């Protein structure tokens, strides 16, 4: 087989650190890049790093980064071959993927029908279950009707979690501890789901209060050949938003990780996946794992996998989208050492991680051995409330966990970030690193909330 | 004033001029037309802009400001523009990414030429975004002093398409 040529030009339909990150790999590969930006991002780093830039709309995302017509028009005017959606925004919108293809563009992601199937979380759960992945007890189909859902909840036993079928990324879900709260929480979550996603359907699952959030990175090419690149532990999260991620998951037996990886890959192949995907699981105290959802895009925390495998996941996404088969070197990759990522968000941990906005007067990223920083931040930029509060990702590698944690501590210590009205997660993360529970890898998804409660008492 | 409104596609029976065998797109457009007619009725300010998104049907409508609200004037040229040094100029800017047309059709005369004096609301061009055409109007009366974008050229959001100096005030 002759290897198809690599995509030669890409429009990056995103902003912030992930746009910067994608443009960097494109530059290394000699791929021409087009950045799109809103009025608020007129001076943003990604617009300067790209070969061309197009102003697509005003600050509100709905009229810029979430506006398919504006992005498509920009792609046509600049004559690009492909669109890389990054994460968030339109990255998992099957309509957008389809419109791109209809206009002769390569969408760097899975085929639109696969996005549609896996984007419906209730359907994704069903598909995963059929592909042999264990799922938590619960309602396989999304229901709007509170009585049917309550019966499912009673059958499972409380606590349960109600989740929006159209949700994802930790939004549109709520835990119900007691049967008498079920109707109220269900109705509230249904209203939230309708507002956020325009789809009120919910499904019910058993809630595991003290589990680990473990996810598997998968790559599948257009010929049905795939590989899993190991697992990441993302248990350090508040309200299901991740703050610190680590690979390999500490304290988990290697054979469990391998079984999860193999199961995730099998499921991805069964659904006809193409590109990079993340299969998210919960792992309980007994080492049983349960499928949660699939993220059909590049993930925020992908760099830790890159650090231990040496694989540039964005490069592989572009190669797969070009129709190239996964090379042997990727299929036989073996991870080495430990990598950790800390998310520096412009949020105030003391006030329930409330987003803060303002001008960044000081920003100094850490450096030194085995430290990587993915960021769009620079002194003088303004952090607005229009977008995600992720300011920078600090990623470190170490030959073992102890070294990696100490190195992260050092990197956070070097990080300077300040601005009037701005708070960040930096100090909170530095405390996590010294917490004996985290040091001994005894942490679960309850870690951050437990500490927030303790603090407020 | 932008009022986003989401509409369900009503049963074909609710939509004048549609039929069971009509193409879904036709039905959708029929439904939109139907709703817009209702929204454009007596007592409502004049419609200014209509945007229809496919997929999960979304319709965005912009009305003219209500009478008791101070009418917006054409935006003064922003500082970053080279023209910004000259104060008091008016501009017509691209409301979206698209293709700018100076005339209704390829052979037709342009809506305006440099030197023309135009009334408020006079059309100065057309912006096409993904086959959706929208009229570009001068918000105030003025004399056209520059048309920096050639006919049929791609434009960015907020790009200056016409520069005017105010007249008659």
Highlighted features:
heterodimer; A: 457 residues; alpha+beta; Rossmann fold; Dna Ligase, domain 1; D-amino Acid Aminotransferase, Chain A, domain 1; eight-stranded antiparallel beta sheet; five-stranded parallel beta sheet; 16 helices; globular; B: 169 residues; mainly beta; OB fold (Dihydrolipoamide Acetyltransferase, E2P); four-stranded antiparallel beta sheet; 1 helix; 33% strand; elongated; disordered N terminus
What report would you give on this structure?
The complex is a heterodimer of chains A (457) and B (169). Chain A is built from 16 helices and 22 strands. Chain A has 457 residues and is an alpha+beta fold. In chain A, the strands form 6 sheets. An 8-stranded antiparallel sheet of chain A has the order 13-12-9-10-11-14-21-19, with helices on both faces. In chain A, strands 3-2-1-4-5 form a 5-stranded parallel sheet. In chain A, strands 7-6-8 form a 3-stranded antiparallel sheet. The longest helix of chain A has 17 residues, at 254-270. Chain B folds into 2 domains: 2-63, no CATH class; 82-166, RNA polymerase II/Efflux pump adaptor protein, barrel-sandwich hybrid domain (OB fold (Dihydrolipoamide Acetyltransferase, E2P), Beta Barrel). Helix content of chain B is 9%, strand content 33%. Chain B has one helix at 24-39, and strands at residues 2-5, 47-53, 58-63, 90-93, 98-101, 117-118, 123-129, 132-137, 142-146, 153-155, 160-166. A 4-stranded antiparallel sheet of chain B has the order 4-11-9-6, with no helix packed on it. Chain B has a 4-stranded antiparallel sheet with strand order 8-7-5-10, with no helix packed on it. In chain B, strands 1-3-2 form a 3-stranded antiparallel sheet, with no helix packed on it. The radius of gyration of chain B is 19 Å and the shape is elongated. Mean pLDDT of chain B is 70; it is low at 1-21 and 64-82. The interface between A and B is medium-sized, with 22 and 19 residues.
